[in-house]
Amino acid sequence: MAYENAKAYLKEYKNAVMLHERLCFRVQRLEASIGASGINYDGLPRGTKPSSPTEAAAIMLVDSKRKRDEVWDKVQKAEEKVEAVIESLEDEQQRVVLAYRYLEGMNWDEIACKMNYTERHMHRIHAEALCEVQMKLGGFDR
What we know:
Blueprint: H1 4-34, H2 53-87, H3 92-103, H4 108-115, H5 119-136
Helix pairs in contact: 1-2, 2-3, 3-5, 4-5
């Protein structure tokens, strides 16, 4: 497809958010499993094998929190990149459609209803917007 690069670029934010949500859920699960959200394994050296299941869970918890924080930084950077490319578009309808779709995560029915257009018209605007984004990202592969 001609617009796959543009779509992938715009989906970076959504994908980062989903990864962050999964990591938040994992942290919550681990905290609940050991019943001690206040455990602090702050990067101290550890042996090769944890001495108990609780210690193993605590290590996983610390690692998951670190990864979650790293991913949050990626979420913020991806959001800034996607917002910048959307805001660089001249057409207001295109900006709104892309923002609803890629930043707000709305589905086509919701976007069409909110903008008072048919879903088919939303797809047309989306395709035009993807063409513009693709051009801003360096054109099309031939």
